[in-house]
């Protein structure tokens, strides 16, 4: 078998390590998750008797993170012949190496029931030897201890237990820093990486990071340089990731919000509203595509619901309307951004796990910081906020029902 292996030299020490704990903090785009997935695929194919458990706080978020990364690693390594080597069950989220029976499974630790299930994991062949905890800062130390306790018992010669944790270092007060980075332990390898050491990152990504460095120096330290940050100044805390219904009939109303972009992201999301709560159902998000390209990809964005758009782009709004969508501009009155945020803060936001870019934005959306006065301002940082702009636009018909009715469209509340 010939394998085309693409790797960053910065992870060589990690991939050769046999210590029990590998703790990897890194910036966005550092390649840590891609390297981890690739390493696990090769390890499980090489070492008979190994089995991997992938963990996120919420189990369903594995589908668009660990499961997607591992699938991608298999496809990149083996191309069209991947099925000769790996069995992949997409609906059940299971993977099995065909040559030795080693398996990969995916779990969450959100509640007591999920934690209890971790204690009863068994495999047809071999034992649970490896755990990948993605977005590890989501977990509590108690969650980690339950997982760590599962790796015990004698192993055949040549095998070893190992937990690999990957995350963005969002808070310098997090237990992971205190337990793994602030003290020396011979069983621990800590590792830091940034997008600057990832040779596969494209030039456009570098330009976006340079822009962030200019407009959001504090955020750049964490998400650009992988340095420990802090959670003060976050705008929204009233949200969670969970499975939500995709049936529009289950909601009091459904609307679409779109923030136009090219060099910064274009974000189009579908929102549901029910019993005073906001539901983020699905969406499109990406860079450097013109309006016609987004329209070509928008098959799942409903045409019979109001699409609230940035009023600064009347030509794009007209193009979407001509293509059949009910696109309308949002009226931007003075202080409207703060008013929209205050309205959202008074509700709970439920986010479908497939909306990965939306989640990345909401978990780091922050107020501007005035370093001279040492205070946060009532103004969001104007960077990496395109999905958040879509959210602000999408709720306008519910925040101001008369504005919704004035469009002449059905669905005002």
- Compute the number of structural domains: 2
CATH class of the largest domain: Alpha Beta
CATH superfamily of the largest domain: P-loop containing nucleotide triphosphate hydrolases
- What is the CATH architecture term of the largest domain? 3-Layer(aba) Sandwich
Organism: Agathobacter rectalis
Protein name: Terminase
Pfam families: Terminase_3
Domain Phage terminase large subunit N-terminal: 19-227
Structure write-up:
This protein has 413 residues and is of the alpha/beta class. The protein folds into two domains: 9-206, P-loop containing nucleotide triphosphate hydrolases (Rossmann fold, 3-Layer(aba) Sandwich); 239-405, Nucleotidyltransferase, domain 5, CATH 3.30.420.280. Helix content is 31%, strand content 22%. The protein has 15 helices and 17 strands. It has helices at residues 12-15, 32-46, 66-78, 112-118, 141-149, 175-181, 203-215, 217-223, 291-297, 314-322, 336-345, 356-362, 386-394, 396-399, 401-405, and strands at 21-26, 52-56, 86-89, 94-97, 103-108, 130-134, 162-167, 188-193, 239-241, 253-259, 266-274, 277-286, 306-309, 326-329, 349-351, 367-370, 375-380. The strands form three sheets. The chain has an eight-stranded mixed β-sheet, with helices on both faces. A seven-stranded mixed β-sheet has the order 9-15-12-11-10-13-14. A two-stranded antiparallel ribbon has the order 16-17. Strand 13 (306-309), helix 10 (314-322) and strand 14 form a beta-alpha-beta unit. The radius of gyration is 23 Å and the shape is globular. The chain starts with 11 loop residues before the first helix and ends in an 8-residue tail after the last helix. The relative contact order is 0.12. Mean pLDDT is 91; it is low at 405-413.
């Amino acid at each position: 078998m010939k394998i085309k292996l693409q790797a960053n030299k910065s992870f060589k020490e990690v991939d050769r390590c046999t210590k029990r704990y590998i703790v990897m903090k890194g910036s966005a785009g550092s390649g840590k998750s891609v390297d981890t997935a690739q390493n696990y695929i090769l390890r499980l194919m090489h070492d008979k008797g190994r089995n991997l458990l992938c963990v996120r706080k919420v189990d369903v978020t594995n589908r668009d993170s660990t499961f997607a990364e591992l699938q991608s690693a298999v496809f990149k390594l083996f191309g069209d012949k991947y099925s000769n080597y790996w069995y992949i069950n997409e609906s059940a989220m299971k993977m099995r190496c065909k040559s030795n029976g080693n398996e990969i499974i995916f779990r969450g630790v959100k509640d007591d029931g999920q934690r209890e299930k971790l204690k009863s994991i068994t495999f047809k062949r071999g034992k649970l030897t490896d755990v990948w905890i993605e977005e590890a800062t989501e977990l509590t130390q108690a969650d980690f201890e339950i997982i760590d306790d599962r790796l015990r018992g004698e192993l055949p010669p040549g095998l070893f237990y190992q937990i690999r944790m990957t995350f963005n270092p969002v808070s310098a007060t997090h237990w992971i820093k205190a337990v793994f980075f602030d003290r020396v332990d011979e069983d621990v390898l800590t590792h830091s990486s940034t997008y600057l050491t990832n040779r596969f990152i494209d030039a456009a990504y570098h330009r976006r990071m340079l822009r962030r460095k200019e407009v959001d120096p504090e955020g750049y330290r964490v998400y650009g340089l992988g340095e420990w940050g802090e959670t003060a100044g976050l705008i929204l805390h009233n949200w969670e990731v969970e499975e939500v219904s995709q049936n529009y009939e289950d909601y009091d109303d459904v609307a679409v919000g779109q923030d136009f972009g090219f060099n910064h992201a274009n974000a189009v999301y579908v929102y549901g509203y029910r019993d005073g709560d906001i539901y983020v159902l699905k969406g499109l998000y990406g860079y450097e595509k013109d309006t016609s390209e987004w329209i070509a990809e928008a098959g799942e964005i409903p045409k019979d619901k109001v699409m609230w758009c940035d009023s600064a782009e009347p030509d794009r709004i007209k193009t979407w309307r001509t293509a059949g969508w009910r696109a309308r501009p949002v009226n931007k009155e003075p202080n409207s951004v703060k008013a929209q945020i205050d309205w959202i803060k008074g509700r709970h936001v439920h986010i479908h796990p497939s909306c990965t870019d939306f989640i990345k934005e909401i978990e780091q959306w922050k107020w501007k910081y005035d370093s001279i006065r040492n205070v946060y301002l009532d103004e969001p940082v104007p960077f990496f906020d395109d999905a958040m702009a879509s959210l602000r636009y999408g709720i306008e018909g519910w925040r101001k029902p008369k504005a919704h009715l004035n469009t002449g469209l059905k669905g005002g509340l």
